[in-house]
Amino acid sequence: MIISSLSAVSLQGGFARELGEMSLPWRADEVADPQLLVLNEPLATELGLDPAALRSPDGLRLLVGNLVPDGATPVAQAYSGHQFGFFNPRLGDGRALLLGELVDPEGRLRDLHLKGSGRTPFARGGDGLAAIGPMLREYVVSEAMHALGIPTTRSLAVVGTGRRVRRETPQPGAVLARVASSHLRVGSFQYARASGDAELLRRLADHAVARHHPGAAAAERPHLALFEAVVAAQASLVAQWMLVGFVHGVMNTDNMTISGESIDYGPCAFMDAFDPAAVYSSIDERGRYAYRNQPVVAEWNLARLAEAMLPLFDEDQERAVQLAEEALGAFGWHYSTAWTTGLRAKLGLRPEHGAEVVSPLAEELFALLHANHVDHTSFFRGLGAAARGDVRPARDLVLDLRAFDDWAGRWRALDPDPGVMDRTNPVYIPRNHLVEEALAAATGGDLDPLGRLLEAVTAPYEERPGLERYAAPAAEDFGPYITYCGT
Ligand code: AMP
Ligand code: MG
Q1: Residue 300 sits in the same domain as residue 420
Q2: For 399, which of 19, 55, 279, 405 is 20 to 30 Å away at the CA?
Q3: Rounded to an integer, what distance in angstroms lies between the CA atom of residue 357 and that of residue 351?
Q4: What percent of the chain has pLDDT over 70?
Q5: pTM for this entry
Q6: CA torsion, points 350, 351, 354, 355, in degrees to nearest 10?
Q7: Which of 163, 180, 197 delimits the end of a domain?
Q8: Is the CB of 72 under 6 A from ligand 1?
């Protein structure tokens, strides 16, 4: 059923009600003249919301948090987090609000959340605001991720506030309306644990089981089963990032979900030339969150989750530690299974090609791509043509032709399936230079480049005439790409 009247939109306040100790009732700043910059119509429909109603003046007020449906209780959520390895007990939504949970037509609970809606008591030194560039970046990248089939929070709309936001230069302000299967983070558990309230920690875990991993409720140790499910979901998620060359940029424990969805797209980027050391964030000077480190960091973050959940695993501390270690020990298996399965598809290989065939072939290929500075996305897509007999699109990207021919000969002898490859290797990703171009234009008032970029990246596997420039790497003069945390 589509709700065509906004007065019928109903938001539950399950998190606010069940976890009051972690919720501060709060209201969004008033936006005098909200201007819709982009609306995700397919997502609105999926949520049972009428896009036309969302475009109306009341719809825009809903999307910036100024129209609060009857019975809804918007809250700022409290959480802690390890930021670049250092624990901060009090982070929380400094510029965000959970408006409440929607029940979509399939009966699933989806958080409706705002980013850039004004200062909250968690704002610390921040202004509580967001500039349109970073909010549109999150919109583009999260929707591209979704279209790639990778679990992620979604973006429903970006609405301009007409307010100036102070950054390095003054920027127009915006609010992002975001949808997620929840906003529970590793940092949420760290907060509950650090509060010293054992009953709160238990309630949070029960809430997470019910919401994300209901199967865990029937396990002998439901909270251990929850932890195991998070380990499996995160291992699979990070493997999928690695397979498309995505660098999240800020894998702090407050930016890692319990659901296994990607969240909080800040200084993130897809790599162009394959480089294991790729890092794009201006504040990540030591490369803690570089491409190749992401699996290790995910495991490290999950160890922090285990520490936070320890009292839930067993009354006996030693036994609890042992159970946590065993559960975390499965990360490597989950990760390598997801990684190998993904590589097998990227290379068009078949189920009978086990890890002993796929892994060495892929490792050798990655070394070749790295040494030759080959564009990751174009190469894998081009390899699909090679599986059909035309090696040029892939071969032309490599300088060391002898090494390529040697590798490709052995790979083609395995009879790769180009159909599988075309469904696995995207043509279009949100390339950094295209994202920058679209954000700069939108900041200046021209939304056309953003629309075209979205058109390309929301159907990433379907090559279309006219979109050639969206499939090509940046010109050499684009230079090394850095994104700033002035989000
Ligand atoms: P992030 O790195 O975007 O995930 O944010 C980390 C923390 O900083 C969270 O607690 C955010 O709510 C907070 N934060 C980020 N930017 C702002 C801002 N402009 N105003 C207030 N809080 C902010
Ligand atoms: Mg965050």
Answers
A1: yes
A2: 279
A3: 11
A4: 98
A5: 0.97
A6: 80
A7: 180
A8: no
